[in-house]
Amino acid sequence: MQHTAARRHGLRPRLIAALAGALALTTALPAAAENFPDHPIKLIVPFGPGGPPDVAARIIGAYLSEHLGPVVVENHVGAGGTLAARAVATSPPDGYTLLAGTAGSLSISPQLYKNAGINPLKEFAAVALVSSAPLVLAIHKSVPAHSVKELVAYAKANPGKLNYGAVIGTPPHLCGEMFKHITGANIVFVPYKSASQATTDVLAGQMNMTFEGTTAMVPLIKSGQLRALAVTAAHRIPELPDVPTMDELGYRGMPPDSWQAIVAPAGTPAPIIDKINAVVNQGLATPEMQEKIRRLGGIPEPHSVKEFADFIAQQYQRWGDVLRVTGVTLN
């Protein structure tokens, strides 16, 4: 899989290809997709309202409603997104029930929860990749460190004194555990029910550090409320040009980003999947949609169905490797 920045540099050719594909499909749609949809589509979000996955799903849902047909966004919360995933996987494969999946719900939780009862590689059909988002390692300003090297040294000199918070089974959680594995630092993980509460506690100094998406972190970093030490992307990000990447600091092996996407139950007819993919990519090619996604800290990621299917398989393997290396399990 190419890293986020590499994909970003190839964004313009992808957008041109996406538009070409969309135009081609509108003039020569297979018969199975011509009348789709003839009633509202449900887009299931595996997390609660208000967070980046929910907001991104509603942005995409609004565009689909305008250019394809009515889309109703619903939130099904629980078990790291696996409850929503099971609900969609067992729905009729007709394109009318879709999952707004994430790295957590499609790559991490199915391998983390022992009774997840879902195999994304077998029970879903890839539809469209929407966006990717790097994570930022941010610390409370009371922590006596101005670099990752100083943070690691402080953590090793004070084992168990530092803590970090994240929602179990999410990229921030696994990034924290991978950071501990790579650096050998003894840092305590504190589980949270929501990313917003973890961020609030870091701001208040009740939590020392966190890995979180740029949506929440960049304004707090620029205002001086939190201190950014590194980003997990392969290259520096425009929002924080002075913040180095983990790779350039020598801490290699960190997962580079989180992502959001749309999948359907396995067996959904290809013409329907192609139609939805074309409309999503058409939306991702517009300046308005790109701006909305970037405001969420994301990078638009137009992909063909085949490219996205390959991406899901690669990500499932990659996050599975992180789970195995770090030894993260749930009882």
Quick gist of this model?
By secondary structure, the chain is α/β, with parallel strands linked by helices. It has helices at 4-9, 11-27, 31-34, 52-67, 82-89, 103-112, 120-123, 148-157, 171-183, 195-204, 214-222, 270-284, 287-295, 305-326; strands at residues 41-45, 71-75, 97-102, 124-140, 163-167, 188-192, 209-213, 226-231, 257-265, 299-300. α4 links the parallel β1 and β2 (71-75).
- The CATH superfamily name of the largest domain is Bordetella uptake gene, domain 1
- Name of the CATH class of the largest domain: Alpha Beta
What kind of oligomer do you see? single chain
Main beta sheet strand tally, sense and closure: 8 strands, mixed
Secondary-structure content class: alpha/beta
Count, helices: 14
Q: Number of DSSP strands?
A: 10
> What is the CATH architecture annotation of the largest domain?
3-Layer(aba) Sandwich
SSE string, helices as H and strands as E: HHHEHEHEHHEHEHEHEHEEHHEH
Which percent range fits the helix content? Answer: 40-55%
Q: Give average pLDDT, whole number.
A: 88
> How many separate domains make up the residues?
2
List keywords for this structure.
single chain, 331 residues, alpha/beta, D-Maltodextrin-Binding Protein, domain 2, 2 domains, eight-stranded mixed beta sheet, two-stranded parallel sheet, 14 helices, 10 strands, 46% helix, 20% strand, globular, disordered N terminus
Give an overview of the whole structure.
By secondary structure, the chain is α/β, with parallel strands linked by helices. The chain folds into 2 domains: 4-133 and 257-326, D-Maltodextrin-Binding Protein, domain 2; 134-231, D-Maltodextrin-Binding Protein, domain 2 (3-Layer(aba) Sandwich), CATH 3.40.190.10. 46% of the residues lie in helices and 20% in strands. The chain has helices spanning 4-9, 11-27, 31-34, 52-67, 82-89, 103-112, 120-123, 148-157, 171-183, 195-204, 214-222, 270-284, 287-295, 305-326; strands spanning 41-45, 71-75, 97-102, 124-140, 163-167, 188-192, 209-213, 226-231, 257-265, 299-300. The strands form 2 sheets. Strands 1, 2, 3, 4, 7, 8, 9 and 10 form an 8-stranded mixed sheet that branches. Strands 5-6 form a two-stranded parallel sheet.
